[in-house]
Amino acid sequence: MENQPKLLWWIFFTIPLLIISNLQNCAYGEPQVPCFFVFGDSLFDNGNNNNLSTLAKANYTPYGIDFSKGPTGRFSNGNNTADVIAKLLGFDDYIPTFNEAKATKNILRGVNYASGSAGIRNESGRLAVGDVISLDEQLQNHRIIISLITEALGNKDSAMKHLNKCIYTIDMGNNDYTMNYFLPQLYNTSRQFSAHQYATVLIQQYSQQLESLYDLGARKVAVAGLIQNGCSPNALATYGTNGSSCVEVINNAVQIFNSKLIPLVTNLNANLPGAKFTYINFYQIDAESTRAFRFTRVACCNLTSTGLCDPSTIPCPDRTEYAFYDSAHPTEARALILGRRAYRAQSVTDAFPVDISLLAQL
Ligand SMILES: *[C@@H]1O[C@H](CO)[C@@H](O)[C@H](O)[C@H]1NC(C)=O
Ligand SMILES: *[C@@H]1O[C@H](CO)[C@@H](O)[C@H](O)[C@H]1NC(C)=O
Ligand SMILES: *[C@@H]1O[C@H](CO)[C@@H](O)[C@H](O)[C@H]1NC(C)=O
Ligand SMILES: *[C@@H]1O[C@H](CO)[C@@H](O)[C@H](O)[C@H]1NC(C)=O
Ligand SMILES: *[C@@H]1O[C@H](CO)[C@@H](O)[C@H](O)[C@H]1NC(C)=O
Ligand SMILES: *[C@@H]1O[C@H](CO)[C@@H](O)[C@H](O)[C@H]1NC(C)=O
């Protein structure tokens, strides 16, 4: 209860900021925060899987067909959602992958650790597609980068001060459903747990992982809710729609998880001094963004049996008409909508309590 005033204070404090932020124009030059760290799955991966032994790779054409550097490992024809958020935060250059950052010591502006097929649980994705950098391992990679930052800035204190100012985005949990719970031929979780129990155990583990991130100096953390995994061409092809436009059993399960993320964020903010966690309602943003496209339930590229783009084929000519590039991942056109609404909420329910543009100012 003693935390209540602090929380209220924070909410009231953010309202004037909301007004200021909406009056401001996009400033060019310096980014709004000195650094941006990205944790997540294939929605955010920018090439971390390229050197892994896995089927979950996108470092070949037609991926990157609209990207200046060609195929890089992004699961998209162009920029992905993390790239869009980085750009909106004012970063001119792309955030490097973990391997690039480590090799070039380009570490102070932030690092992208995201890995396609990764989950909160270590086993998610592994039995389905191969090696993966799970969230625990992404946090381990972050510790390596922090030691390099400490070295670069001279001491732990300066490193912590720097890390406190960064924005962190984290998109995790989708593969704990699509590449675990809903693959009963490979995983036992759907026999061990009801959808409610599973969401609870995932949230417990996620809570500890988010606390570890806080212990590593993160204060401004945007936690992405799960997308409508039941509406992907992959889910529709695998499960059939049974008369509805999406696979409801999947959407219902991920919504249970999402409903527990909001209280998780609230609890972290109440219990961890200086913490500013915020929830991004990707489920709603995903659902609404899809409607902007002519083709909403079919992939733009021709698919392999794993649901990724077939390397030998030419994708659809107009990528801006498709919501999905392959059987599970958004086109750049849709990533632009996802990133923009995460950065600046379009509806009051897009983010709780603040969007990323406000998080940058706190
Ligand atoms: C990744 O693989 C590429 C090509 O095989 C190689 O050049 C590069 O050194 C590898 N990077 C790491 C970090 O292993
Ligand atoms: C992709 O991102 C880069 C770097 O932020 C940016 O320069 C480029 O305009 C983006 N492309 C599109 C189509 O948004
Ligand atoms: C995750 O699982 C792999 C394979 O079973 C194992 O080698 C690795 O140590 C595990 N990582 C963590 C962080 O538990
Ligand atoms: C699933 O359960 C069976 C039987 O209990 C066990 O032998 C197997 O190792 C389990 N598989 C996984 C991936 O946990
Ligand atoms: C299909 O819908 C019917 C009626 O709503 C329901 O009883 C059945 O369980 C559904 N099947 C699947 C596979 O979702
Ligand atoms: C991709 O699939 C479409 C039909 O879905 C077909 O018309 C086209 O020829 C295929 N492209 C290639 C390069 O195989």
Q: What's the count of strands?
A: 7
Q: How are the strands ordered across the major sheet? A: 1-2-3-4-7
Which ligands are bound? 2-acetamido-2-deoxy-beta-D-glucopyranose
Spell out the CATH superfamily.
SGNH hydrolase
**Biggest sheet, in brief?**
5 strands, mixed
What's the layout of helices and strands?
Layout: H1 4-23, E1 36-40, H2 81-88, H3 98-104, H4 126-129, H5 135-153, H6 156-165, E2 167-171, H7 174-181, H8 189-192, H9 195-215, E3 220-224, H10 233-239, H11 248-271, E4 276-280, H12 282-290, E5 295-299, E6 322-324, H13 332-343, E7 351-352, H14 356-361
Parallel strand pairs: 1-2, 2-3, 3-4, 5-6
Antiparallel strand pairs: 4-7
Helix pairs in contact: 2-13, 5-6, 9-11, 12-13
Bound molecules: 2-acetamido-2-deoxy-beta-D-glucopyranose (6 copies).
Residues 187-188 line the site of one 2-acetamido-2-deoxy-beta-D-glucopyranose.
Could you write a compact summary of the structure shown?
The chain is an alpha/beta fold and 362 residues long. Helices cover 44% and strands 8% of the residues.
Protein architecture, described:
There is one protein chain. The longest helix is centred in the last third of the chain and has 24 residues, at 248-271. Helix 5 (135-153) crosses helix 6 (156-165) and helix 9 (195-215) runs parallel beside helix 11. This protein has 14 helices and seven strands. Residues 1-10 and 18-27 have low confidence and may be disordered. The chain is α/β, with parallel strands linked by helices and 362 residues long. It has one domain (33-359): SGNH hydrolase (Rossmann fold). It binds 2-acetamido-2-deoxy-beta-D-glucopyranose (6 copies). Residues 122, 136-137 line the site of one 2-acetamido-2-deoxy-beta-D-glucopyranose.
